[in-house]
Design a protein that fits this description.
Blueprint (H helix, E strand, L loop, with lengths): L35 E4 L26 E4 L3 H6 L2 E3 L4 E7 L18 E6 L3 E6 L13 E2 L4 E4 L10 E7 L4 E2 L24 E8 L5 H4 L17 E9 L6 E8 L4 E8 L7 E8 L4 E9 L2 E10 L8 H4 L2 E5 L4 E5 L7 E8 L4 E8 L5 E5 L9 E8 L2 E8 L1
Antiparallel strand pairs: 1-2, 2-9, 3-8, 4-5, 4-7, 5-6, 6-9, 9-10, 11-12, 12-15, 13-14, 13-16, 16-17, 18-19, 19-22, 20-21, 20-23, 23-24
This protein binds zinc ion (ZN).
The site of zinc ion (ZN) has 5 residues, from loops.
């Protein structure tokens, strides 16, 4: 009986200083849609001065990596995969730190990270990863595209992002080639240097947010806004590519087009990743438009409705019904089957100051109509008091 032995000879790969790896993109998804490059490596060693590989300023002072940011924590929660950028061996894994930081604290450093040693004495670091998300261990071999972790916001991080940093044995490497980085590109396909402006997301709220709350993309209320529930209407926008000297302008208009309020804001610094918001006191009932312009070009718009506050007293309880029509500014007071009853209406502002008094008589249907339009008062909330037929009724109206 013949036995055949097959010997598989390993192919020997000899790594030299010249055979340095080139990288695939270290994150799954589409650039400009699922993530954005918000900071490159800073090539200017002078304190306070910035220079990225393209001789621009899309970096921050002393930044040693490439920051690839997700649009939101919501997207982070859905799980965005970080992959090995080139073949190599894992030499470091830390994934035990808190991963939802929103404030920059330099001493927190990478927080959680994975390090991969590549042929040619090249090392890549994948920083700020989600807690408990590492899928490789020290000593594991990885190939380009091997999933290693999920994007997080651990360590010195304000938003969910991957900080991708590359070193050789002695020096930091910026993988992006450009007029201010003489070393060649380390990317298989280097993404274009992006200086465009874009809107990632925007929304409306019935309250005043903070930067931290906006980072969570709070949902817009389902119901129309109401002056009783919402003291303000906030428009917020998450954008990228805002430059120093740009001007943001916001317009609030009635659906008829009438301008209600306008505000202009000049940016004194550039940001690749930026939250901006503006709010107004809840306007009168009706349909409204808000439009946001960057450098006088429409960048985002939204519409909303404000519910009128109409006060209704139950006749069976009080024997009086008071309705306010916010568009005609008319108050209808009804006392069933009470003809020719005198009705006295008094209006106060919310500080309690008396605005005016109006008198009327109920008609054949027991209704008295009182126009509030003749009083020259600003829009807002007012207290209404009605006395008729020995009955008294009070309510708040949104004039
Ligand atoms: Zn970074």
């Amino acid at each position: 009986m013949l036995r055949y032995f097959f010997f598989l000879l390993p192919l020997l790969c000899v790594a030299t200083a010249n055979s340095q790896p080139i990288f695939r993109w270290p994150m799954e998804g589409t650039l400009g849609k699922d993530f954005f490059v918000v900071n490159y490596v800073d090539h200017d060693s002078a304190v306070g001065l910035l220079r990225d590989h393209h001789c621009g300023v899309q970096t921050y002072d002393g930044h040693q990596g490439t920051d690839i940011a997700l649009p939101s924590f919501r997207q982070m929660d859905s799980g965005v995969t970080i992959v090995a950028a080139a073949p190599g061996r894992v030499f470091g894994v830390v994934d035990t730190a808190f991963d939802r930081n929103k404030v920059s604290v330099i001493s927190r450093g990478f927080g959680n990270w994975i390090g991969i040693a590549h042929p040619g004495g090249i090392y890549s670091y994948y920083a700020h990863i989600r807690r408990g998300s590492a899928t490789v261990n020290v000593g594991d071999s990885v190939q380009p595209g091997t999933p290693i972790a999920l994007v997080g916001s651990a360590g010195n991080s304000t938003d969910p992002h991957l900080h991708f940093e590359v070193w050789n044995d002695s020096a930091l490497i910026d993988p992006f080639a450009g007029p201010c980085n003489s070393t060649g590109s380390r990317w298989i396909a280097q993404p274009e240097y992006d200086t465009t402006f874009g809107v990632i997301h925007h929304g409306l709220l019935g309250w005043v947010p903070t930067l931290d709350t906006l980072r969570e993309y709070p949902p817009r209320p389902n119901a129309p806004f109401s002056p009783l529930a919402d003291t303000v209407i906030t428009f917020w926008i998450h954008e990228y590519g805002v430059r120093a000297g740009d001007t943001s302008r916001i317009e609030w208009r009635r659906s008829t087009g009438e301008l209600w309020y306008e505000w202009t804001f000049a940016h004194d610094a550039g940001y690749r990743y930026y939250y901006w918001w503006s709010y107004i006191a809840t306007p009168p009932a009706g349909d409204w438009h808000v439009r946001y312009f960057l450098n006088n070009r429409l960048a985002a718009s939204d519409s909303f409705s404000v519910q009128g506050v109409s006060a209704v007293a139950q006749p069976s309880v009080a024997g009086i019904s008071v309705r306010y029509n916010a568009s005609s500014h008319r108050v209808a007071v009804q006392l069933p089957e009470a003809v020719g009853i005198s009705v006295r209406l008094q209006l106060f502002d919310v500080a309690g100051n008396h605005i005016g008094t109006a008198n009327a008589e109920t008609d054949a249907a027991g209704i008295a109509q009182i126009e509030l339009g003749s009083w020259d008062i600003p829009h807002g909330l007012y207290a209404l008091q009605v006395v008729a037929g020995g009955k008294q009724f009070g309510c708040i109206i949104n004039y």
